Amino acid sequence: MSHATPTQNPIYGVMAEFDNRFDLLTAAKTAYSAGYRAMDAYAPFPVHGLAEAIGKTDNIVQRMVLAAGLTGCIGGFGLMYWITNIVYPLNVAGKPNFSWPVYVPITFECTVLAAALTAAIGMLAVNGLPRPHHPLFSVPQFERATQDRFFLCIESADPKFNLAEARSFLEQFHPMGVTEVENTELEK
Questions:
Q1: Which residues make Cβ contacts (< 8 Å) with residue 43, sequence separation at least 6?
Q2: Which phi and psi (to 5°) does residue 102 adopt?
Q3: Dihedral angle over CA of 80, 83, 85, 88, nearest 10
Q4: Are residues 24 and 18 in contact, defined by beta-carbon separation less than 8 angstroms?
Q5: Domain extents in the chain
C-alpha cells in the first residue's frame, strides 16, 4: 500500500527541455524574477550566468576551504614550533631553535592538505553526493542532459509552486517539451 504523508508531494516538479543554452538562460532569469526560488537547471556544459540566474550566488565551499587552509597553516606552523622549541629542542651548530624558514615546507603542506580534503569533502556534502537516485532520472528525456539538451526544473518545494501555473509558465518559453516529474523518493 502506497501513500504519501501530507508534507510529501507526489510531484517533484515541472521540467522544461530546451535545445540551446540561450533559451534556458532566458527561462531561468524570468522564473527567478517571477518569484520561483526552488528550481534547478541542468546543462551538458557550464553556462555562464546560469547559477546567478537561478539564484545560486552563495558558495559555502569557498569559505570552508579558506577556513581549512588557514587552520592547516596555523596548525602546521604551530606543530613545527612545538616540536622544535618545546618537546624536542636541539642545538644544531648554534642555530636558534625558532628558525621559521625551516617551518615553511611543513606549513605549506599542511595548508594544502587541509584545504584539498575540505574542498573534496565539502563539495560532496554541499551537493548531496553520492546520490544514487534522483526523481529526474525517471524522466527518459533527461538522459540527454549530458549530451545536447538543457533543462529547467521548478520544484514543488517552492512556496509559489502550483502545478498548472508552473506548467503554463514554462510553456510560454516554447520549450521542446514540458514534463511533470513524479517524486520517486516517497516512502512506499
A1: 21, 24, 50, 145, 150, 151
A2: -70, -25
A3: -150
A4: yes
A5: 11-58+133-182, 60-126
Q: What distance in Å separates the CA atoms of residue 180 and residue 32, rounded to the nearest whole number?
A: 19
Residue with cell 509558465: 169
Q: What is the C-alpha to C-alpha distance for residues 32 and 42, in angstroms, rounded to an integer?
A: 15
Q: pLDDT tens digits for 45-95?
A: 999 999 999 999 888 999 999 999 999 999 999 999 999 999 999 888 888
Give pLDDT < 70 ranges for the chain.
1-7, 186-188
**pTM for the whole structure:** 0.77
- Grid cell, residue 73, equals 597553516
Asked if residues 75 and 109 have their Cβ atoms less than 8 Å apart, the reply is no
Using alpha carbons, select from 11, 34, 30, 6 the residue that is nearest to residue 164.
11
Tell me if residue 146 falls in helix, strand or coil.
helix
